[in-house]
Amino acid sequence: MLLSSLVRAYADAARRSLRRWSESVDTDTADMYSVGASESVTGRLLAKLFPRRDDYVLATKVYFPMGPGPNDKGLSRKHIMAAIDASLTRLGTDHVDLYQIHRFDPDTPWEETMGALHDIVRAGKARYIGASSMYAWQFAQAQHIADTHGWTRFVAMQNHYNLIYREEEREMIPLCLDQGVGLVPWSPLARGQLARTGDTLRAGTDPIASMMYDPHAAQDAPVIEALRAVAAGRGVPPAQIALAWLLGKPGVTAPIIGATKPNHIDDAIAAEDLTLTEAEITTLEAQYRPHPVLGHQ
């Protein structure tokens, strides 16, 4: 299964993309993407594409600011309860399949956050809950609080994980494997670093990619070269190899792809049927060097 975040500037482009992947992938969004516009567009298009709500899996997230006020952000009970209702209204549905906290909130006790999320599940507004980038000890705290009170546990971790950022293999992934938590990695193609074969408009205009990956470009270059060599040997685009590598990792259930063109979806779907050899995996992994922690803020 593959998830795709639908943050698109134009509804027509989103509609074309949704039609392409509607038979193969499920949909992940967040309230803060375009300050709610992503949820609105996604909800309208899903309603047109699918006759029944049970025909697709829908996930969204909460945490980042949705307004200027102190209660317009974070993981307090007040904000979570307001945010889920607002998201459901924009999405045009009475529930999401997976409701995720977008980050750890240092200003709110876990008891308050986990209690609110449990109440949302009990109310039928979310089937399951998940979390996103944080330290493993923070995630373990949350699960312990849920267990202590008999509340709903997180079933998914949306973490930063790809061929040029593998720090999650040290603590978070072993914890998730032990706890039976599924991994839904974000930025599986490192914001295009692992997909492109030449200069692109995004390469020169994406400030987040520049912030996250440019400082480590020199140490990442050998990994990208190895990726391109394996892709050339297979006769497929590098994106397929990068996604196939990720899909082959224990615990990974649904890499989150961001598709803006039909061929992006084709590559993602094709990766599900691509099994890498041990030699290819060794080639891809051998040049990796440790990185500072990225993506927890």
Describe this structure in words.
The protein is of the alpha/beta class. The chain has a domain at 2-158: NADP-dependent oxidoreductase domain (TIM Barrel, Alpha-Beta Barrel). It is built from 12 helices and 8 strands. Strands 7-6-5-4-3-2-1-8 form an 8-stranded parallel beta sheet, covered by helices on one side. Helix 9 (217-234) packs antiparallel against helix 12 (278-285) and helix 10 crosses helix 11 (262-271). The longest helix has 18 residues, at 217-234. The radius of gyration is 19 Å and the shape is globular. It starts with a strand and ends in a 12-residue tail after the last helix. The model is unreliable at 4-10 (pLDDT under 50). InterPro entries: AKR_Detox_Biosynth, NAD(P)_OxRdtase_dom_sf, NADP_OxRdtase_dom. GO terms for molecular function: oxidoreductase activity. Residues 28-286 form the NADP-dependent oxidoreductase domain. Keywords: Oxidoreductase.
List keywords for this structure.
about 300 residues; about 10% strand; 8 strands; single chain; TIM Barrel; alpha/beta; 8-stranded parallel sheet; 12 helices
Helix-strand pattern:
EHEHEHEHEHEHEHHHHEHH
Counted beta strands: 8
From the alpha carbons, calculate the radius of gyration and give it in angstroms. 19 Å
For the record, give the distance between the C-alpha atoms at the N and C termini, rounded to a whole number.
Answer: 27 Å
What is the CATH third-level topology name of the domain at 2-158?
Answer: TIM Barrel
CATH C-level class of the domain at 2-158 is: Alpha Beta
CATH superfamily of the domain at 2-158: NADP-dependent oxidoreductase domain
Shape: globular
**How are the strands of the largest sheet arranged?**
7-6-5-4-3-2-1-8
Give helix % range.
40-55%
Q: How many strands, which pairing sense, and closed or not: the largest β-sheet?
A: 8 strands, parallel
Mind telling me which CATH architecture of the domain at 2-158 this is? Alpha-Beta Barrel
- Portion in strands: 5-15%
On the 0-100 scale, what is the average pLDDT? 90
Class computed from helices, strands and strand pairing = alpha/beta
Number of helices: 12
Low-pLDDT windows of residues: 4-10
